[in-house]
C-alpha cells in the first residue's frame, strides 16, 4: 500500500530533537502526518520550530524504558529510528545505540508495529580493503574486522543486525537507510574534511569525493521511504547528486562562513604516516598501542579514502531526487532558509 | 583452571572479561545479562562458551566454579546468594552490599557453602598504593598519622548517573551516586585507621535538583591518633583520585588516575639537605612519571590495572587452596567505615 497525503500516518520518531530528527519531524509534518516525537530532553525540543505544532506529541522518554515505549507505540503506524549515541566510550555507545534499539524493537513487537525506517550509516562499510576510486554502493562489503574500527562503527553494525533479526524473526517491515555524511546548518565543518587538533582543522586530502547528504534532502528521503511500501526489505544508500570534492566543499563553505584555522595534508602523506604508525605498532608494540584515529589506517580510510558513490538505488526504489544541489544546500545552511518546519510558526 | 562466568556486561565487564579471556587460570564458560544482545556480544567478543539471559539457567548449565557479579549494587546480594548456593565462589563488584548487615549475612552464607566471597577492592592493588604500603611496612614514613583520600569525578556532567529520565539504580543506594565510589575510598584508608572512634561526615548536594541525593562528601574519621580525611567532589577538576599518607617521618602521595609517587622523607644529606634532595628526587620522579603515563596511555594500561592483579592473585589463591587477597577483615572494616560515614552524616544543604 503506497501511503499518500490522503492517508496520513502516525509516525513515532526517535532522536526527534537531534540534528537530523528535527528536520525529519518537520518534513513529516509538512506532508500532513502526525508525529510522536521521542526525545530525552524536553528543553532541547522546546526550542524547535515544531514544538507547539498541533500534530506533534512530544514523548519524553529514554529508549531503554520499554514499557513506556510500548505504550507510546499504541496507535502508531510506523517508526523512524534516528536515535543513536555518537559520543562517549564504547559502552555508552553500546547502551545508547544497541541496547536502545533492542528495547525499541521489543516494544514494537509488543505493540504490533511492524514498519520501521531504520537509519544506519556509511561507517559500517569496509573501506581499507577497497581499491581507491572503487564504487561504494549497497552491494559493497561491510566492515571486515569491526574491532579495529571505532565504537560508532561497531555499535551501528550491531544495530543493523538487530534490524535484520527483527525482519526475519518478528516479521518486521524494515527499510534500512544508510546516509553518507549528513550536513546542514548545525554541522558544516564535518569529520570527512579533516581531523580536529586543538583549535585547528587538519584537512586531509582535497580530491576525494565527499559522500554527502544535505539534511533536508536526507529528511526527504526518509519520509519517501516511510511512505513507500516498495521500500520494505530494502537497504538504500542516501547521498546527494553531483557530490563535491573536499576542495570544492571547503572553497564553497569559505564563501559563506568564517573557517576554523586550517592546515592541509595530502591524502597520500596521511595514508603513508598511518601505515608507518601501524607498522611500528605491530612490529614494536605488539599491535596493542591505542593510536589517534588518523594514525590508524582502517579509520583513516573510512573517512578520507577517495571512492565513488551512487544513489541510483534509492532514487529508483523511492522515486526520490535530492531537492537541493550542493550549492543550494550550503546557501540554505548559511542563511535562515532551512527551517525544520516553517509552517509551524505561521 | 577454574570455570568462570560473568553476570552483568556493563562497562566494568570489559576489565573482568579481558582478564578471563587471557588468563590461563580461568575458562570463561558463560556470560549472563538480561539483554540478549549484550550477553551475545560479550560472549562473542571475549570467547565465552555461551551467552545467557537467565542466571539460574547459566549456573545449572555451565556449573561455573567462580562467578563475577558486575551488576548494579542493589542487585548484588540476591545474585551473590544464588551463586553461592549454586556452589560458586563469588567475586563481586563494589560495593558488595548495601550495608554491613547485608555483607555479614552474605559472608555467613559463603561460610555455610564453603565458598569464597571477594569484593573488588581493585585500587588496593595499583602500583603506587602497593609502593606506599611497602614504605609504611618498612617504616620509611614512620608511624602513620594521617591518610587523605580525595576523589573528584564529573558525575553530574552527562553519562548514566545524570540521566533524569531513566534514573540509574545507584540513586537508590543510601549515599546515592557516591555509594558507587565510596568503597574505593574506604578500602584504601582502613589499613591505616586502627579504629573508627569519631566520624564526622558532611554530605552535600551542591549541584541541587532531585536526582542526586549527594554529590559531595567531606568527612573526617579519627581512630586512635590517626586521622582519615575523605573528600568526594563533583565540582573540582580535573578528575583525580589522590591519596596521601602522612607519617611521623614523612609523607607519600599519589594520584591513581595520573599516577606518580611523591615521597618526602629524610634523605641522605641530613636535615639541611633533605629538602633539596627531596625536590630533586621527586622532580625527577614526576618527569619519569609523565613518560610512563604517556606509555601507559598509548598501551592502554589504565587505572584498572590493579583489578588484573587482584583477579590474578584471587584465581591463584583459589586454585592453591589459599585465602584470597581480599579477606573478611578487609571487607568488614570497609563496610563498617562506609556505614559509619553514611549513618553519622551531618547534612550540609541537603
Quick synopsis:
The complex is a heterodimer of chains A (346) and B (350). Chain A has helices at 19-30, 42-46, 66-72, 90-111, 151-170, 215-226, 246-256, 267-284, 297-304, 312-318, 326-333, and strands at 10-14, 34-39, 56-60, 78-81, 115-119, 135-136, 173-179, 181-183, 194-197, 200-204, 212-214, 235-238, 261-265, 308-309. By secondary structure, chain A is an alpha/beta fold.
Please tell me about this protein's structure:
The complex is a heterodimer of chains A (346) and B (350). With 346 residues, chain A is α/β, with parallel strands linked by helices. Chain A has a domain at 10-185 and 211-240 and 307-327 and 336-344: NAD(P)-binding Rossmann-like Domain (Rossmann fold, 3-Layer(aba) Sandwich). Chain A has helices spanning 19-30, 42-46, 66-72, 90-111, 151-170, 215-226, 246-256, 267-284, 297-304, 312-318, 326-333; strands spanning 10-14, 34-39, 56-60, 78-81, 115-119, 135-136, 173-179, 181-183, 194-197, 200-204, 212-214, 235-238, 261-265, 308-309. Chain A has a seven-stranded parallel sheet with strand order 3-2-1-4-5-7-12, with helices on both faces. Mean pLDDT of chain A is 93; it is low at 1-5. Chain B folds into two domains: 2-119, Rossmann fold (3-Layer(aba) Sandwich), CATH 3.40.50; 127-259 and 335-347, Dihydrodipicolinate Reductase, domain 2, CATH 3.30.360. Chain B is 38% helix and 22% strand. Chain B has ten helices and 14 strands. In chain B, strands 13-12-11-7-10-9-8-14 form an eight-stranded mixed sheet. In chain B, strand 1, helix 1 (13-22) and strand 2 (26-32) form a beta-alpha-beta unit. The longest helix of chain B has 29 residues, at 270-298. Chain B starts with a strand and ends with a strand. The A-B interface holds A 40, 60-62, 64-65, 88-92, 94-95, 98-99, 102, 147, 158, 162, 285, 288-291 and B 10-11, 14, 35-38, 41, 45, 158-160, 163, 165-166, 297-300.
